[in-house]
UniProtKB/TrEMBL annotation, chain A:
Cited PANTHER family: CYTOCHROME C OXIDASE SUBUNIT 1
Transmembrane domains' residue ranges: 39-59, 79-98, 119-140, 160-188, 200-227, 247-271, 283-305, 311-334, 355-377, 389-413, 425-446, 466-492
Name of the featured protein: Cytochrome c oxidase subunit 1
Pathway: Energy metabolism; oxidative phosphorylation
Gene source species: Steroidobacter gossypii
Keywords: Cell membrane, Copper, Electron transport, Heme, Iron, Membrane, Metal-binding, Respiratory chain, Translocase, Transmembrane, Transmembrane helix, Transport
Gene that this sequence comes from: ctaD
Enzyme class: translocase
InterPro entries: Cyt_c_oxase-like_su1_dom (IPR023616), Cyt_c_oxase-like_su1_sf (IPR036927), Cyt_C_Oxase_1 (IPR000883), Cyt_c_Oxase_su1_BS (IPR023615), Cyt_c_oxase_su1_dom (IPR033944), Cyt_c_oxidase_su1_bac (IPR014241)
Topology versus the membrane: Multi-pass membrane protein
UniProtKB/TrEMBL annotation, chain B:
CDD domains, A to Z: Cyt_c_Oxidase_III
Organism for this UniProt entry: Steroidobacter gossypii
Protein name, UniProt field: cytochrome-c oxidase
Gene3D superfamilies associated with the record: 1.10.287.70, Cytochrome c oxidase, subunit III, four-helix bundle
Domain Heme-copper oxidase subunit III family profile intervals: 10-294
Family listed: Belongs to the cytochrome c oxidase subunit 3 family.
Cell compartments where the protein resides: Cell membrane; Membrane
Amino acid sequence: MAHAHTHDAAHDHHDDHGPAKGIGRWLFATNHKDIGTMYMLFSLLMFFIGGAMALVIRAELFQPGMQLVDPMFFNQMTTMHALIMIFGAVMPAFVGLANWMIPLQVGAPDMALPRMNNFSFWILPFAFTMLLGTLFVPGGGPAGGWTMYPPLSQQLGDGFPMLIFAVHLMGASSIMGAINVIVTIMNMRAPGMSLLKMPIFVWTWLITAYLLIAVMPVLAGAVTMLLTDHYFGTTFFEAAGGGDPVMFQHIFWFFGHPEVYIMILPAFGIVSEIIPTFSRKPLFGYDAMVYATASIAFLSFIVWAHHMFTVGMPLAGQMFFMLATMLIAVPTGVKVFNWTATMFKGSISFEPPMLFAISFLFLFTIGGFSGLMLAIVPADFQYHDTYFVVAHFHYVLVPGAVFSLMAAAYYWLPKWTGHMYNMKLAKAHFWLSTIFVNVLFFPQHFLGLAGMPRRIPDYSTQFADWNMISSIGAFGFGLSQLLFAYIVFACIRGGEKATDKVWDSGRPHGLEWTLSSPPPYHSFETAPEVK
Amino acid sequence: MAHATTTHAPSEKYYVPHSSPWPLVGSVSLFLTVGGAAMWLNHSNAGPWVMTIGFAILLFMFAGWFGAVIRESEGRLYNDAVDRSFRMGMMWFIFSEVMFFAAFFGALWYARNFSVPWLGGEGTRALTKILRGDNYEAAWPTDGPGDVGGDFDVIPAFGLPAINTAILLTSGVTITIAHHAIKSGSRGVLNVFLGLTIALGFLFVYLQGMEYVEAYQHYNLKLTSGIYGSTFFMLTGFHGFHVTMGAIMLLVIWFRCLKGHFTPTHHFAFEGVAWYWHFVDVVWLGLFVFVYWL
Amino acid sequence: AWELNMPVGVTELSRDIHGLHMLIFWICVLIAIAVFGMMIYSIVKFRHSQGAVPANFDHSTKAEIVWTIIPVAILVGMAIPAAATLVKIEDTRDSDMTVKVTGYQWKWQYEYLDQDVSFFSTLARDSDHARQLDSGVDPNSVENYLLEVDNPLVVPVGKKVRVLLTSHDVIHAWWVPAFGMKKDAIPGFVNELWFRADEPGIYRGQCAELCGRDHAFMPVVVNVLPQQEYDSWLAQQKGGEQAAPAAASAQTVENAAPATAAAAE
Ligand code: HEA
Ligand code: HEA
Ligand code: CUA
Ligand SMILES: [Cu+2]
């Protein structure tokens, strides 16, 4: 492809050659697939690090009494576990999927802003180096919970500014990633692909990206105020100066609640892709699904204070936040019903992605029900800050968000690598995960109801039995994930050749299945026509 | 697939750069900058140095990255789709900035409507004052029941701040004139009015600096003056920082105009900066009303 | 112990809350049976391996409307009793006595307004010894491990006790499950809650807001006594130690019924 250009930038313009050689391919990447791969591998690494921390927690909680770690270190593990799982594992995994799949699904050559795409990614390893680095400085890692409530979070040592700046970096990364997603979707769709013809995964990501842009800067603002309160004498969160510690909570949860939907909306998208494929039937109620997603996103901005019912809010405020929160069950219910209706009168087969999607359906719904219970203010006075809450959010996050990621990996791995993976092992991984995740988290409902507070390294003897079961489940679940890592790497290295369609159900619809497996380096050089 | 043969017809294909070192350089520089800042806050002597090095690399990165983009743009590698991507990207970036300011405006709103009245014995947490047992009255401005930072005066809205408002609003007009000029190809007008905008921008920053000196020296109004000082300086400070950034961006664009970049139809960089400028303008109006005036 | 559910508690509020909890729980169970039933039916009935032939319908506005309206109706049904209970909870007026509770890292201070009685309440010695890393003490050998204090809060049975909560350092939360109430103790602000225990007894709870290293080790113990025993306990306390006078009297506090209570009318 010869050009008439004389400018030096022109030489690397649109060549058809493949990836660059060596490490440069990754360090200087602009290719959406390479960046997507890096995101996902990074996220897998973080999942194991965050999971290892969860295992420290569960090991200490295996029996009453302090056996393994100092309470301070325990609190660091709880805090870091959450920060790493949320910002390091789940969010980057979804961004990685967005990178891989959105250009493929909308028929674009790449993401709209490829260099910024690489920037979004490469900030992350540095951010997490800084975050993990806090564990090795005087005062140790953050130990005030992932919610960083002042004044407690102000008691951190040298790790304090590192925590704040790490959060800033993650925020910058997320914002740039989200901008890229929005621009790609709004600007790079193949001709003929109107908004209501977009694959549902693209839709859910579009809405997620809006959420991200709206709330990550608010988190940045909140932690900036923590920083200036700590070092520069401001009093945002100190009553003596006219501020209020609870003010931080409001700002934090204005970010924090949408954040939890940031972690579930793309999951909804994935499940909505997989269920029709293996039910051999179109998605039921596509339009309703889109509107439901948008409603959830909208509502997510006006429910934040349901995390703070015990702070002493005006009665009217408590009422409002209770009612608004309960309303979210309606659009979420619409989604659950539509998925069920998609399976109804289908012709269902049970490949690993479908297994995970079905498991998601049941277990996410259970997590949603406990969420609804938490929304009832008087009941939340009992549930709040107990293991009932821990059970709730792990049900929506682990068999919810994480299972959707497993499902996505099993669904698209053959497309990405060109190889089929070991189905038997994947099914084993599914069964182990589904069984152990329930052993791990279901008893935590009982613990919470019986009165066990969260964020404690030791408990009274009445809680001993279920804790032991839960810890056994944790180790079982954690070890099962080694199988997942093995399956993924084995699939990258080789295996039976995958067809372009991959799944012989005849169903998989969407542009990604019109490309070869693996797809060409520059996805859609010429935009496909969508009817 | 064939590209147009002249250098000045835009490419048909969506331009995807092949590879670029700048994002990685940027990540390293950010890491060093904030890492250095963290070291500094932790009283390490190396902190300021690390931060300076990081910041220098950051500037280098900006120059390199934007330099590459400018070369590609002037090389007409960008088609309309790329141009649209840049526009949308800029718009959503500005929206994220709006939300950043929203956090601080939210803090101001919460303090004035909730925490300060409660501390003064009103509303849901009225008992706070009774148990504290002092005679603190809820009022605004305030530095709280602890009289944090000591008595202070506030900058009157209709002094310097009003002048600054006029300056920024005027600069909004001058940049619009410049925008019309670029569209109609009147480069002389463009250069003059863009230059004027920059001058007004820096004048604003200068006056804001004067105001801070005044506040610290004569009003005893400091960052540490309780919640009033906190919200006042954080809001005006971040705004002033954004104006400075905007003015520097305008300056870069101005040099590009002087070099003859941009065409009446192809001038995203100019528009992006202009939008940014309007954004700092609008934030200022919010500040003027809610921080200085009401 | 293998407890599965929330205990009922000994106050009206805790019983209301428990009722509410069971109500929403059973509603969720019913919905779950319907939804999961449908899913399981589809999964079993429409199996590809059994030769199921897929239908091709893909939407139904009527269905969407139905499954939007029905949940809304169910939610309204839950919200009404919840709101009623909430109003009751927030009404702290007409209390019989007031205790000020202050959280410290890591103990509680109890001050009886107008009574000149005030003391600290910390984790019992044997628990504190056993909970040290590698103490070698089996927690099962310690009675009420982690749920025992040196000086419990003592209140009379059947009286409306108003608790004013604040903190000396970071945020704590005062919680006694049997009373159904939990509220944050926030430095610089005062929160309130109330309870009226129906039966004498010792009720145990814990700090319920992460407050640092020993968050797990600042239990709340309330000893509810018959009126007479309470009176003699109080007299003994007054005779005994010299207590710092609390800043406000119960009377001023009672007169300043905050807006929450007013809104509750
Ligand atoms: C992916 C993450 C995710 C998701 C999707 C949700 C979903 C929901 N969450 Fe959850 N939540 C968290 C993550 C999440 N949450 C986290 C991380 C925390 C703790 C943070 C911390 O403190 O550290 C938390 C805490 C939390 C609290 C605070 C508890 C406390 O601290 O005291 C509350 C209270 O209202 C709540 C409510 C809800 C509700 C109502 C939903 C709803 O969206 C659920 C809706 C779904 C359904 C209801 C099921 C399907 C619906 C039907 C089948 C229709 C019919 C149903 C009915 C009519 C009932 N959540
Ligand atoms: C997406 C988010 C996410 C995910 C995926 C998880 C996953 C898990 N979580 Fe966590 N968790 C949170 C988000 C998440 N969590 C949040 C937000 C909190 C609240 C924090 C707070 O209070 O501030 C929390 C808190 C929390 C607690 C409460 C702590 C406390 O209150 O003190 C517990 C306790 O059981 C727990 C357990 C687990 C377990 C066992 C898993 C498992 O699913 C993990 C499984 C994975 C593995 C186990 C990795 C496998 C690795 C290996 C087997 C190899 C080991 C490797 C080496 C040793 C090198 N989590
Ligand atoms: Cu005090 Cu937790
Ligand atoms: Cu929430």
